[in-house]
Amino acid sequence: MISRISPNSRDSFQDGTSISGMPYAPAPEGARRSGGSGDLRHGNLTQVLCYVRDHGPCSRHDIARGCGLGISTLTDLIGDLKSRRLVKELDPVRRPGAGRPTRPIDMDGAPWCAIGIDLAHDNVAIAATTMGGEELWLANDPVTLRGTEPEEAFAQVREVLVRRLAEVRADREVISVEIGLPGVVVRDRGQLERAADLPWTEFPIRERIREVLAETGLTGIHVGVANDCQLAGLYAARTEVRLPVDSVAVYVGGLREVGSGLIVSGQIFGGAHGVAGDLAQAHVSGAGGDRPDRLSSVLGPEALLVRSGLLGADEAAQKVIDDPIGALELLRNEAEAGNDQVLSALAEAGSALGQVIDDVLGVLNPHAAIIGGYVGVLSPYLQESFDSQLSERLADPAFSATLVATLETLEPRVARGAAMLARDACLADPLTLTRPLRS
Questions:
Q1: What does the pLDDT read at residue 5?
Q2: Which of 98, 189, 301, 308 has a beta carbon 3.0–4.6 Å from 345's, enabling a disulfide?
């Protein structure tokens, strides 16, 4: 199934459901977390929080069944989470066919703040949200990191972060921060290995951000790092396409280059070393039977400008670095005007992308393939050749239910995806990152 999703569309893989029409949750399968009583309680609290996050307002019965917990145990857990302002009770709702009205449990998190950072060479975008997912603000600050000395570049980042943290209201407490960066990111070490447009190599970005946070009085909070396109995929899968919790999705997008990522069960799947899902280097058949190309050399924005005959190689490279939106608009405007060379280059790029997604569907059999970023914006001109590559695969009953969704607008997916991952970190460790605020 191929669909297009506009920013205002409510269409998605999973329809929204109110508690009055929600079916009873299935009992969980597989082994439960075990260990000491503290570990068990910690695991149960996380399980409850994630269930409410994923299902929206739920009755206690549904949560208990969905998490495999007894009602008395759940009541105790809900009491703890309410005292920490992580969940709240809503007004009573009468369920069809049920007796007494139930008070649904929903996410709260208003006193706690998560920060998501999208760090590019020319801009720092920061999204602030509550732990319940309410976006408080989204800010963009220009920086000049490319070609700058490493310490001077980080000083610019520090200035932006300190200034924006000062905008968090006094009645909210920052407890989790995630940073999205281009290039190769080693999440478990909190390190940026390399990025083409950033001046850092093997840079301990997590520790340096922690130092800045400590200067502002924020200690003992979660700080994480991730690849920017993986974060964009996380946001697209969970918020824009709204895939079910247990879904597997592949995302292709980016702004200055082809980026991609894998989302498994609502989380980034990094593989053994954190770079799983890197499709930019996938081999594709060259036009006219020529030697194989890499996807990035056919679909990348720089390659498209050159293959379209719009700019020379050096000019195209500089245009994408300095003005990626302008480069995208140039391609789109020429395509709309019917420029044959541009349309031919885009058709070839769509075919190359279709080859790669076809291989991914065969290897991973994901529930969805999501096309976003600049690729999504150009998708109307990629669609015909892209669909042609996938038609045989999607005609197979084993793959016919696969959703192929295109997101045709540029959204701040990285910053919002980083804020989403920051919230997830709190849900995974509520006892450490929060404290009771009321008895």
A1: 62
A2: 308
**Could you tell me how far CA 114 lies from the centroid of its own chain?**
15
CA distances from 207 to 128, 179, 203, 211, 330 (A): 21, 12, 9, 6, 40
CA dihedral 162, 166, 167, 168 (to 10 degrees): 110
Instruction: Give the pLDDT of residue 275.
Output: 86
Instruction: Report the alpha-carbon distance of residue 83 to residue 204 in Å, rounded.
Output: 36
Residue with tokens 């979660």: 222
Q: Report which of 247, 274, 242 is spatially closest to residue 261, judged by C-alpha positions.
A: 274
Which of the residues in the chain have pLDDT under 50? 7-35
Give the model's pLDDT for residue 122. 97
Q: Given this model, what pLDDT does residue 118 score?
A: 98
In angstroms, rounded to a whole number, what is the distance separating the alpha carbons of residues 175 and 423? 9
CA distance 373 to 259: 9
Residue 163 burial (CB count, 10 A): 12
CA dist., res. 269 & res. 257, Å (int): 20
Return the DSSP state at 7.
Answer: T
214 vs 373: CA distance, rounded Å? 34
Residue 438: predicted pLDDT: 73
**DSSP code string of 296-340:** HHHHSHHHHHHHTTSS-HHHHHHHHHH-HHHHHHHHHHHHHTT-H
Which pair of tokens denotes residue 213? 């946070």
Say how far apart CA 73 and CA 79 lie, in whole Å: 10
**CA torsion 53→191→230→174, rounded to 10°?**
30
Q: Which CA distances in Å does 157 have to 150, 160, 191, 311?
A: 11, 5, 16, 33
216-262 pLDDT, tens digit each: 999 999 999 999 999 999 999 999 999 999 999 999 999 999 999 99
Tell me the whole-structure pTM to 2 decimals: 0.90
Give CA separation, 326 vs 43, 303, 331, 381, in Å.
48, 15, 9, 17
Largest CA distance in the chain: 72
> What are the chain's domains?
22-107 (1.10.10.10), 112-230+415-433 (3.30.420.40), 242-410 (3.30.420.40)
What pLDDT is recorded for position 4? Answer: 63
* Pair type for strands 222-227 and 173-181: parallel
Contacts of 367 (CB under 8 A, 6+ apart): 13, 243, 244, 247, 248, 249, 401, 402, 403
As a residue count, the chain comes to: 439
DSSP-based three-state secondary structure for 267: strand
Residue 91 has a CB neighbour count (10 Å cut-off) of: 7
